[in-house]
Amino acid sequence: MGYIEEQYELYLTDANSVDASLKELFDAHGAPAWMSTSATPVTNGEAQASSEDIVKVTSALKLVEAIRRHGHLEADIYAVGGKDRQATQLTDIKNYGLTEEDLKRIPAEWIWPESPVKLDNALSVVRTLKERYSGTISFEYDHVNNDDERMWLQNKVESAAFQVKLGNEEKKQLLKRLADVEGFENFLAKTFVAQKRFSIEGLDVMVPMLDHLVQSASADKINHIMMGMAHRGRLNVLAHVLGKPYDRIFSEFHHSPNKELVPSEGSTGINYGWTGDVKYHFGARREVGDGEQTSTRVTLSHNPSHLEYVNPVVQGFTRAAQDDRSKPGYAQMDEEEAFGVLIHGDAAFIGEGVVAEGLNMSDLPGYRTGGTLHIIANNLVGFTTNRRDGRSTRYASDLAKGFEIPVIHVNADDPIACLSAISLSYEYRQKFHKDILIDLVGYRRYGHNEIDEPRSTQPKLYKEIDEHLTVANLFEKTLVDEGLVEEGSLSQINEEIEKNLRETFNNMKENETEEADVKDRPGGVERPLDEIETNVELDRLKQLNQDLLKRPEGFNGFKKLEKILKRRSNMLDEGNKVDWGAAEALAFASILEDGTPIRITGQDTERGTFAHRHMVLHDIETDETYSPLHGLDQAKASFDIYNSPLSEAGVIGFEYGYSVQAAESLVIWEAQFGDFANAGQVIFDQFVAAGRAKWGEKSSMVFLLPHGYEGQGPEHSSARLERFLQLAAENNWTVANVTSSAQYFHLLRRQAAISNKEEARPLVVMSPKSLLRNQRVAVEAERFSEGNFQSILRQPGLTKEGKAKEKVKSLLIGSGKLMVEIEDAVEKADQKFEAVDAVRIEQIYPFPDKKLAEILETYPNLEELVWVQEEPQNMGSWYFVEGILHKLLKEGQIHRYVGRPHRASPSVGEPNIHKTEQNRIIQEALQMSKGGKSNEGN
Q: pTM of the entire structure?
């Protein structure tokens, strides 16, 4: 009422200043009844509208808005299983005190002035809007706060401009495509009985939807479509969208090692590792062109059984494909170069936390990809779990609404509605470069993997499914009704499909065996990296060092910080030493000068968790930022550095995907503390450690995991070194724990040197915390300009020139911070250590056993090898190295362990207890006479 009064007052001032529908109302009836003292006021000779009339109009307006917001609640989006859905009153006209007669009396333009079609009255408006919002396709976009986006979507929906119009021949082609999808699944079911295939049946229309998407992207000359999906429908998508040959798919069911059953890669670009994977985990690539030089490459990512964890990997692929890394500064992103498509499971989308991590990255500077198109392949069941047991929300898609992502619900039994959904989604992504989601509501015709019996757990649902026609049969009926095809047309199409598939299968050269062979590892994987040259001329290093201290004109740096950074100016001079932070900066600068792009991310990576890096400086007056590595005239490639969101699994997956796609780059992820890397354990296990062996997927990504026992408790001590060593085999990665700035410099440069080569492999570094500023890890300039990375080092302090090797009875072997503390203890001790010597293992995997054996030969009277570590005995390196050390022993020699005992928790929580333990380990290792004291430093 207040609104109407306000509008009437404006009308009295200027009749044209109000909405046309209200002007017409006021012209005809004058002021609302409640604004007049007269019981029956008259305007222009006519009785004025009563308050009841105004209430009816207001209620009609509310009803229209309710249909827009809640029309999805009564939409026909369930092919099966929707009969039990609770009815809604939110769009019921009775709920608004209205009747159809009331609505007939209200002019249409009063409640829908922007209607794209001519309507007689409000009842026609309500019916039309219900058709738009409550049919086999429905929409949720009221949660989108951007006015332009929301109004664009509203106009598209209400004008029906989003609807795909197919010609008669196109409809016939669509029927044929649906028959291809169904026929392929039927052939697999009959030919390979009781084998897992995770069929697409019930969501068959997903293939035509993806076809439409690929055609649209190709027409727009988009270079890359990056796709990720779990198992449901994967084989069908591989066959029909990615073009994977039928015979290759059949050969994977055959378990045949016959190479002729596995055609050469060709345009489909399918990679296989040496141990391989099950058929429904593999991805593929396909080039789609229209005869021109440009083409669109469709890439379906390999995917483990950990379902949604492929999401951030695909997002990393996409960003890497969009970034131009050829010039200095931040990589230049082009959103039109590529876009991502993620196909989710309904139970997994709402259930797996990595989904939310990926959605959160969608608009962050370092991670945005200009809009991902999400499709939920909605089965209605997660394995054997019903919706009521699997989520607390109405829809599987509800998580997306928290990120203001528009949602389209569509019935998988209406192919044209589904094509309209994918068309609208693609158009939205291209216009606004934001994520959008399609909830493709179908079912699965058989059990989770065709071996399960779903009728024991979902008897009512599967009774309905058993009686339900397939989408191809339903669409044939539609075309018969339209007079486009004759009854029985689908049967003829199916016979032809069956015949072609059978011929392909019969023409395969069958050579079955129960013992399929495992391929040999690539030669590059076998080759050691010890001989790679990584030194840099001293003059070149000095020039880079000076250029790193340059600042843009007028840049107001933080004075205290600039004073610290300027200390680096003479670090390379004779008599001085280079600390860890400077060594890293020089490594990055020289790698950029060599032309290798760098990308480094982590939760506090710009500054560094321990304030050692400062690769992004802030102007104290303007808050503008500047990276010293962006000002290098010598740089020939981009340098990306971003603070990441508070995420491990999502961000690690993203960076891994980036490193695979941008194989020429040095991609680095730094944990805030190495302990938190375990939140990304699935990515390490399924992708980083095994991706190449399973799928032939190469990555040379670097992981910096701050590690070291300093009394900071269980979650700030251990990067869980033992887990990385447990996963280490077949040269799948390098695991290092280095103790000098030069070693770190050479290790980074070595990793950059193998990028995009057959030797490529990830690098896991147990990086320092307190050691960052320990002068014992700082070294002279010549260590950078000479030599290369050393996998094993003589221990400073104990190993001295002229030391009598024949007197050495005990050789300490260890790695990392503890060995530096032992060095410090030796220097402070007032005793000689003639019977003890030590070496540092800087690269724990691959273990330098040959080099260690050569060192052992120099000690003629050695009695024992002592592995020393600060981690508990059941953690750290001990169980990994124990067998290696045992093989190196000669007759009469033993090997033993010095460190913390077996523990359930990585470390104690009390600093003084930590110091006592640490001192005890050092003294026991050195066989010193005194016991540990809690007040001694370490």
A: 0.90
